[in-house]
Structure formats: structure tokens, C-alpha cells
Amino acid sequence: MIQRKGSFVSASPMSAPLPRRFVGTGPLTGRIRVPGDKSISHRSIMLGALTVGETRVTGLLEGEDVLSTAAAMRAMGATIERQANGDWLVAGVGVGGLLQPAGALDMGNSGTSTRLLMGLVASHAITTCFIGDASLSKRPMGRVITPLGDMGATFTTYPGGRLPLIVTGTDTPVPITYRLPVASAQVKSAVLLAGLNTPGVITVIEPVPTRDHSERMLRGFGAELSVDIEADGTRIIRLTGQPELRPQRIVVPGDPSSAAFFVVAALIVPGSDLVIENVGLNPTRAALFDVLRLMGGHIVEMDRREVGGEPVADLHVRASALHGIVVDPAVVPSMVDEFPVLFVAAALAHGRTVTSGLEELRVKESDRIAAMRAALTLAGARVEETPDGLIIDGSGGKPLSGSGNDAIATHLDHRIAMAMAIAGLASENGVTVDDTRPIATSFPAFERLLADVSAA
Ligand code: S3P
């Protein structure tokens, strides 16, 4: 078992599972500010570490996943420090300058750190060993190994292309053209990051658009990157390798995936009236809010503005009578992490909600289709599992019975834990979550903010 002090993957008795029962305590009111976006935080550390000079990051998410990325970049030569005012300074090694790490890189629970860093190291002449927790060690890495192998890197993995794995990078990487077989920003980003230290132009063809933070940030750091959109929506992304990246001043907008839990909570707990400030609304991320509006949710954008080159607004959310809908599978990539909490909203809605096209949810931190079917069923919701989604017959606004003291299994998945915590707020007997420790991977302040808005 991997030892990581102060982290939920540590095997020490100090870090035994932390179960908790979440109960409704009345309406959610007041104003909260969500922490920095996880995807943007990872990328700001990685790209900052590839510049010569000092990148300053304001609003970095200080969750365990991002700290895993920071530790890995330090192990490969970058200097990364938190300032007294909460900003982070990243002093880099320059494109192509990553150093051989002395030991294995412990990625904890973070698939994004693993896949993006596999890309970065693939085009360096270093050997890198990636390890992670029990959840990460089940996740498929073949999706990045295939294109990175085409570029010339070699891999030794556990059976099934899983962690622990060793990447032997190449100093003569080949600039490939790669058409993404799955809609995955992680795979797209791994190839682009490998392309940074590759001579020539690397091309990624993306038939279904996914989050575009890598493209935006690579351009912001001075790389030559173009995106052509074909008539059918296919995106052709071309990156010219071996740019000189320039240090930046980055302000990280709030994470819409974290805001999602509070938005749904305010919609389903009667009497709630909540403002969530600083929510990133990049169109490749924000589909949940549109879907909830289609279900009848009162979500109003206030003070729309730009933060760090990304659209941001404060969201005013009021408790609403939701009704079930058929969710268009075309929106899945723009809300891929938000389905667990959407399922909770559906469980409280009037009528039936049908979701499909969610195969990718089965290979996230847990199998989120199976985990949410089991969790919501234990909490008293009516749920049917299909190969690629859930069909949920809502309670029509009536509280769920709740799981009481029976703990629902979160499978080391932060989003299952937070989604079911929110379900507990709209239940008669509360919902017990078997382990709240994974919440710290993406949203360490979750329970404190929940207490703040419940007591306001
Ligand atoms: C992420 C991409 C998504 C998402 C993950 C973060 C990223 O994964 O689920 O939480 O930062 O690129 P996929 O692109 O593999 O779907």
C-alpha cells in the first residue's frame, strides 16, 4: 500500500475511513465563493514549470490532486511555492528541461495528473514511474499509451495498461496526427503536452469537443496553436513544437464542477436562496446549468465577466420544482463530471429523467453509473441502470427516505461522496457516506461551506 502522509491513501491507522451522515438542516442561504478550477490549476502548474522565469498563480485549487501535480513537477526540477497571500509561484525548467525524478511519482487519486504528466514526460529522455491509490490503479491508461507510443515513448504497465507504470521517454519524438477515439480532454492534453518538446507540428483531431483549457493556456503561454472547426464540428488542433513558453500571471476562475453541488443543493432544499460567486462558465464545462434550467431550475447569472481568459459569473439559485427530462447525450462531454449530482436532482424531480451516452462514467474515479445507482437506491430513489446511463423516476419534490445509518459506498470517489451528501440534505433520515476523505482531492472546503450556508 502506498504511504502518503496526511492523505487519504495513506495506510496508517490515522487515516481510517471517515464516515459521516449528512442531514437536512433547512434552507441554504447566503453567498459562497467556490475554489479554483481543478483542470486549470493542474495546467497552470505544468505549463509554469516549462517556462524559464516565474509564473504567479492566484486562486490555485489547493486540493490533493493539484498538490500531486505540484509534487511531481518539483521532482522533475521546478520550484513551486505558496506565498503568504495564497498565491503560488512556479519557477520552471524550460520546454525540454524536465529532469529525471529520483523516485516514483505518487499521483494519489488523480487521473488528470497521471495522464497529462505521462504526455509531458513521453518526449523527454527520462524514465518515470507513476503510482497511485486503489481507485487510480484501476483506471485505464491505454488511451494515452497508444498515441504516446506512436510518438516513440515506451511503457511497462501492470496488466490491463494500469498503474503502477513506467514511461521511458524519447529524445527523438515523432510529431503525429492523432484522431481521438474517445471524447477525452485528458487524452487530447497528453498528446499536446508531449508535442511541446517535439520538433514539427503535432495534430489532434477531436470529433467531439471537450474542455479546451489546454488550448487556451498553451496559447496564453505563447505557444503557436491553431484550432480549425470543420462543418460537422470536428476540431483540428495543431501545435508547433518546441516553443519558448513565457511566464504568466494566472488567475484561476472558480470550478463549475465544485459549484455544481451547491447549485443542486439550493434547487432541491425547499426555501433555499443562494449566491455562488466566481463560477467558471467556459462553454465546454457549463452544460449542467443549462440542463438544470431545462428541468425548471431557477439559476440566474449575475455580473458576467472574464477571469484569466475564461467567462465567469455569480450564480443566483433558488429552490425550484424540477421536472424530469431526456438529457441530450451531445452535452455529455461538457458536463462529464456533473452526472452524479445531476442524478440527485433527478431523484427529487417530478417525473422521469433519462440519461444515455455515459459509457465514460464507468472509468472515472469509480464506475459512477453503478455507484450512483446503488447509492441512490439505498437512499430511497427509484433508479434503473442501463449500459450507458441511468433512468430515474423522481420523488416529485418529496424528500427521499435517506439511507439512515446504512453507509453508501463511495469507492474512493470524491464526486460520489459530495453528490450523496447533497442527497442527504433532501432526505428524511439523512444519508451516510462511508468515507468523506476523498472530498479533499478536489474540494477541501466542501463540508465547511456546507455548514456556512446551512447556518446562514
Ligand atoms: C479533465 C478531463 C475529464 C474530467 C476530469 C478532468 C481534465 O476527463 O473527467 O475530471 O482536466 O482534462 P476526460 O477528459 O478523460 O473525460
Can I get a quick summary?
By secondary structure, the chain is an alpha+beta fold. Helices cover 28% and strands 24% of the residues. The protein has helices spanning 38-48, 64-75, 111-122, 142-151, 185-196, 213-220, 256-268, 287-294, 339-348, 368-378, 414-425, 446-455; strands at 20-22, 29-33, 54-58, 79-82, 88-91, 105-106, 127-131, 154-158, 162-168, 177-179, 201-206, 225-229, 235-240, 249-251, 273-280, 298-307, 310-318, 352-354, 382-386, 389-393, 407-408, 431-433.
Total domain count: 2
Which kinds of small molecule does this entry bind, naming each only once?
shikimate-3-phosphate
Strand order of the largest sheet: 2-15-17-16
**Strand count:** 22
Name of the CATH class of the largest domain? Alpha Beta
Q: What would CATH call the architecture of the largest domain?
A: Alpha-beta prism
> Ends: how far apart?
42 Å
What does the radius of gyration come to?
A: 21 Å
Largest sheet: 4 strands, mixed
pLDDT averaged residue by residue: 96
Poorly predicted parts: 1-13
Structural class: alpha+beta
Strand proportion: 15-25%
CATH topology of the largest domain: UDP-n-acetylglucosamine1-carboxyvinyl-transferase, Chain
What is the CATH superfamily classification of the largest domain? Answer: Enolpyruvate transferase domain
Can you count the helices? 12
Shape, principal axes of CA atoms? globular
